[in-house]
Amino acid sequence: MKELLLNTHQLEIGYLNGKPSRRIVGSGLNLTLHQGELVCLVGPNGAGKSTLLRTLTGLLPALGGEVYISGRKLEEYPRKELANEISVVLTSPIQVGAMTVRELVAMGRFPFTGLFDRMSEKDWNIVDQSLKMVGLEGFEERMVHKLSDGERQKVMIARALAQEPRLLVLDEPTAYLDLPGRVVVMSLLHDLAYGHDKAVLTSTHDLDLALRHADRIWLMDEHGVIRQGAPEDLVLNGSFAETFNRRGVNFDPSSGTFETQSPASVPVFLEGQGPEFIWTKRALRRAGFCVEKDETPGTVAIKVITREEKLQWQVEFENQVNIFSSIYDLINHLKSQSTH
Amino acid sequence: MNQSEKNSTSANRATSNRIGFLFVLVVILLLVVILNLSLGSVRIPLREIVRVLFGQPGVKESWVFIISNYRLPKIITAIAAGMALSASGLQMQTMFRNPLADPFILGINSGASLGVAIAIMGASLATGLFIPTLSVGGDLGLIGAASLGAAFVMALILLVGKRVQNPTTLLILGLMFGHATGALVSLLVYFSAPEKVKAYSIWSFGSFSGVTWQQLQVLIPVVIFGLGILAFLPKGLNALLLGEDYAKTMGLNVSRLRVLVLISSSVLSGAITAFCGPIGFIGVAVPHIARNLFKTSNHKLLIPAVILIGAIVAVMADLIAQMPGSQFVLPINVVTSLFGAPFVLWIVLKRKQGAASFSV
Description:
Chain A contains eleven helices and 18 strands. A six-stranded mixed sheet of chain A has the order 7-8-9-4-10-11, sandwiched between helices. Chain B is built from 14 helices and no strands. The radius of gyration of chain B is 21 Å and the shape is globular. At the A-B interface, helix 2, strand 7 and helix 4 of A face helix 1, helix 9 and helix 10 of B.
């Protein structure tokens, strides 16, 4: 096992609203984070993911218990020394105005430059390397406010890297990105953990991406209880299902995704193979049909067939056969049938 | 040439371009200063001005008098005021993360006004407690009163601003503070002797010309002190552009920076307000001119730029106020408001079109 970078002992997190009243978000947390590891913090909205990250990075005081960074108590760190250990990327889009990518990434050198912020040749080299690590070479002189959301988030990650931390903490870095942008950022984080030996802790709503990329998941439920483990372990022992299931939405352990369940589902039989079969099944589920494994008399039988290199859907019901050339038409037909 | 060398030279080129731009600003400042020395109710030829400045004999005595006792101290005051007000506005715009923040709009000038009103008129109410005179001690008292008033309102805004994150709410709060202090000033005016009220209202029109050489000996060191603090802040202000959370995780002591900004900007605006009256719009407009000209929000460059442009704008405003060739002199506030109000309106409308708050 690699070096332990962060651990907590009976940590209690939350907010102090004046002396007597405090809102406890989570308690009894014993968490560990090692070098070279990508950990995703996931959980339903309002579980307290941001509160936890803010507490671990020293932005919010712990209500009880201890946070240790490299074995030393968090509150014993002088601000500047803590900046050498941890750097962050936050959710909210930044508004720095007119600033070049290089200038912004150079801000990562803040803890190392003196009172007047003089950058040495070494500092500039680290800025260049950081930009290279996130794949933004050639962007140095571009203005930050003219970049796309995904590019800007990469710049913020480069800034965090230029701080040369051992631990990188990100709060929903993919929140404002489109799907390809999310995949890029998540695999970048994976590379930083594997290729550059950083410890990376990120919160995310993207369960699918977290399941694919994380070495470990901190699964936080609505009561602030955290279960840790490899994503696969948490799927298999039912933790995901327990945390996320609510009325009408189920976590499907076989696909690792959430399925909506229509209350009154009409059974149909579906025959087919490959992606065509999977996508047809999805469409049927959405429309409120449940797909049976065996053909029983009296149910609608649907076959995915290929005729003259074209996909077709053949529907057989009460000796009547209809053929459709798209899933859309198929679903519309089934809907009109079931309402009669 | 390897990658990093190429990078640092291109960075150097950008920097040297900008330094060249700063030099151009210095030249423009010199030009408007000379123009201001030469124009006014009496026009004095350039050659005579040079002779007066270098102490050469043979110039008309009245011209020597006008230049050395009237126009020169007035221009030095204008330069100091322009620098101080715009430097104060820049710091506050960054700290409040609000493009419309300036000493005037956030009610800090009103605080200074209240301080001065109490210093001038309050004395007659609380007889024998505090009688300001025109000696250096009295000037310090006036500066102190204005700075205390400014610092009081700014501390209030900072306190409330910690809880209220919405910039619009803060602006409205500033406006309300302004009204409240305005009401207190009215109360003082209502109960004061007419000559005190007149002294106060003349002060409130704003002017660069009432400041004597003797008073400058107080004003200049105070402005240098305020700007001196600012000289240590560009690094922290840049970090603050990312927001307080980022700044903290970068190792910045945010509360110390807040205090330093509080001291610097309230001393700067308080001192100028004490001597020249509440001068509007320079503080809010000049930082935007600088961001537009230099296409940057990096304070290492913005601070010198803002200071130079502020000086140029103030000297030009004074030139317009003199209405060259006529006997009339407009209050400086009339000029800055007539030109500044449409400018600020333009900033607001530009923002509506979706531009980010600090963008150019």
